[in-house]
UniProtKB/TrEMBL annotation, chain A:
UniProt cross-references to InterPro entries, sorted A to Z: AAA+_ATPase, ABC_transporter-like_ATP-bd, ABC_Transporter_VariousFunc, P-loop_NTPase
Superkingdom, taxonomy of origin: Bacteria
Span of domain ABC transporter: 2-226
GO molecular function list: ATP binding; ATP hydrolysis activity
Pfam families linked to this entry: ABC_tran
Record's keyword terms, sorted: ATP-binding, Nucleotide-binding, Transport
Species in which this protein is naturally found: Sinobaca qinghaiensis
Name this polypeptide is given: ABC-2 type transport system ATP-binding protein
UniProtKB/TrEMBL annotation, chain B:
One annotated GO molecular function: DNA-binding transcription factor activity
SUPFAM superfamilies: Winged helix' DNA-binding domain
Keywords: DNA-binding, Transcription, Transcription regulation
Chain ranges of the HTH gntR-type domain: 9-77
Organism lineage: Bacteria, Bacillati, Bacillota, Bacilli, Bacillales
Entry keyword Ribonucleoprotein: no
PROSITE patterns xrefs: HTH_GNTR
Tree of life domain: Bacteria
Protein name: GntR family transcriptional regulator
Length: 237, 124
């Protein structure tokens, strides 16, 4: 369970998190964090991962304050590439297995076969698409109850996106895991999401089950997002 | 991501329609086991929770049966399958008719149009 109470975080003068409050129980499924660039999506993930400290407020994971230590139970996939390019895929897996007790080698081997990646290849020799796949494989091979993914699909071509989305579906346990993924390309992942959280200027502007958006409002998630932006803008006038 | 979905209808309902379509075409025969939730999720590119919901919806309709620990199976109840066929037929007819009427066609126009079309198709 993740609990945020009055969480604030600023970089220079810019508010990246502005009084965020929410509770996400265990097994919340796949939650999409959406919003424009600079709305605070990445900061939110970093705060939960314990990689950034809030200026104010508290963040708890299963009752404990989030620190570097809890980060061993939370799988975090950063937006940028963060592995040693001179390693082979196999060495990278060994490294992850040594760092994280929840790393599941069987799952990793499965995913590598599923994604058609050679264990012997050096990371630097892989195509951009395959590096994207390796990144996802490393994050999802951990049996972590919380998985945080920052823009897992950004900059990849449609074929690669499709295979990554299929990988996500196959290897996420929606009943036990909570996955928070940020995206600004809603299209590809929309059918994957259980819930969407809309952010703007460091605040959580709206939050709903994707099914309710369709059922109650008769909107696509994109339309729903736009309608919230418009309400906010109208209020400023 | 084989399937594309209408933006405003719940995905689980749209998925149920697609599954019913397969059942009627006997791609899945009475008594046959449906693919697992995860396999279906991967095939259609949707969240496994959505597929579970689709399967429960189909179970409520009586079209499939879940056997504990074994999976989900197409019903062998002929009456249920007949009703499903009829209700999908009605659904298609009603949608088609609504659209035709909205375009200003009368009942006669529609009927003669359909008749003409069917005859033409026979000659192909």
């Amino acid at each position: 369970m993740i609990e945020l109470h009055g969480v604030c975080k600023s970089y220079r003068r810019k508010k990246a998190a502005d009084d965020i409050n929410f509770t996400l129980p265990e097994g919340s499924g796949i939650v999409g964090v959406i919003g424009a660039n600079g709305s605070g999506k990445s900061t939110l993930l970093k705060l939960i991962a314990g990689l950034a400290r809030p200026d104010k407020g508290s963040i708890r994971f299963n009752g404990d304050k989030v620190t570097r230590r809890t980060s061993s139970e939370i799988a975090y996939l950063p937006e940028m590439e963060s592995y040693y390019s001179f390693y082979t895929v196999k060495e990278m897996i060994d490294f992850y297995a040594s760092q994280f007790p929840d790393f599941n080698r069987e799952k990793a081997a499965d995913m590598i076969a599923f994604m058609n990646i050679e264990e012997k290849s050096k990371i630097k020799s892989l195509s951009k698409g395959n590096r994207g796949r390796v990144k996802i494989m490393l994050a999802l091979s951990r049996d972590a109850s919380v998985v945080l993914m920052d823009e897992p699909l950004s900059g990849l071509d449609p074929m690669v996106k499709e295979s990554i989305v299929k990988g996500l579906i196959s290897y996420i346990d929606v009943e036990k895991q909570t996955v928070l993924l940020t995206t600004h390309e809603l299209g590809e992942v929309e059918p994957l999401l259980d819930q969407v959280m809309l952010m703007k200027e460091g605040k959580v502007l709206a939050w709903e089950y994707t099914e309710d958006i369709r059922l109650k409002h008769g909107l696509s998630t994109v339309e729903w997002m736009k309608s919230h932006y418009e309400i906010k803008e109208a209020a400023y006038e | 991501m084989a399937a594309s979905f209408d933006a405003s209808k719940p995905i689980y309902k749209q998925l149920a329609s697609q599954m019913y379509w397969r059942i009627l075409r006997e791609e899945w025969k009475p008594g046959e086991k449906l693919p697992s939730v995860r396999d279906t999720a991967v095939e259609f590119g949707v969240n496994p929770n959505t597929v579970s919901k689709t399967y429960s919806e189909m179970e409520r309709d009586g079209v499939v049966e879940t056997k504990r620990g074994q999976g989900t199976f197409v019903t062998e109840n002929k009456e249920v399958l007949f009703k499903l066929r009829e209700s999908l037929k009605q659904e298609q007819i009603s949608q088609f008719t609504k659209e035709m009427k909205a375009m200003g066609f009368s009942a006669e126009d529609i009927l003669s149009g359909v008749e003409h079309y069917l005859k033409g198709e026979d000659h192909d």
